[in-house]
């Protein structure tokens, strides 16, 4: 099965992106109307997140999300054969000096991103950083070894390194002891387990458990925290602006950095909701009544 997947993905990756967008236009209605991939989850998330919107407005966001979801799928496959030159044209990074200035001070950087826009293409940041101080992607290992290896290699195509989430602390400790620097990218809009939840906040009009691991690492190592503000300029082109969340993480109050990140993400979603991953079961845990 995986061999067939590999053959198909390699064939698709060699096609022009314009052709892949034609495929996306054909596939999107099929995924939305026939397959109905996670339609109930998406609809529930949208209704609860935007109680002020009409049914017509909700359905419009929903359709736009599925269109972009299919674009994202084909863009990710296209990445398999994309050249460095083309990736540089398609993804623009603004305020990169926020990272390199910290390198000059002998500090690594923790960068918070989200499942917003094409987060896979954001791994190309290493093309714009010193080769000995690349971007490092924190990832959760997939159950299937073949697909895990596929995604692992995909995310390293443009010089980035991968760090398994459970090994993040020890990796950072090793980097510091060996005087190595890097920009640690963490997608932090996921749902923590019920047992590991330490903080709740109101996000998109709902009680939401939030991940605080990035903040804890920043405070532990005294590393600055930067937000990667991703915007889709037009089809196939993105702009990521870096925004400083905390220069001195140790002096920030508890959960302050996490809340700033979530507030910035919420503002982005409210402005252009179709680019967030609504098919994720983000609100599967209920806030305990005693909190």
Summarize the entry for a quick read.
With 291 residues, the chain is α/β, with parallel strands linked by helices. The protein has helices at residues 2-13, 17-35, 39-49, 55-78, 84-90, 97-104, 145-154, 168-177, 213-221, 256-271, and strands at 91-94, 109-113, 135-139, 161-164, 183-187, 200-203, 206-209, 225-234, 237-246.
Word description of this protein:
With 291 residues, the chain is of the alpha/beta class. It has two domains: 81 residues, no CATH class; 186 residues, no CATH class. It has a seven-stranded mixed beta sheet. It has a two-stranded antiparallel ribbon with strand order 6-7. A hairpin with a 2-residue loop joins strand 6 and strand 7. Helix 2 packs across helix 4 and helix 3 packs across helix 4. The radius of gyration is 19 Å and the shape is globular.
List keywords for this structure.
2 domains; two-stranded antiparallel ribbon; seven-stranded mixed sheet; 291 residues; alpha/beta; globular; 10 helices
Present the secondary structure layout.
Blueprint lengths: L1 H12 L3 H19 L3 H11 L5 H24 L5 H7 E4 L2 H8 L4 E5 L21 E5 L5 H10 L6 E4 L3 H10 L5 E5 L12 E4 L2 E4 L3 H9 L3 E10 L2 E10 L9 H16 L20
Parallel strand pairs: 1-9, 2-5, 2-8, 3-4, 3-5
Antiparallel strand pairs: 6-7, 8-9
Helix pairs in contact: 2-4, 3-4
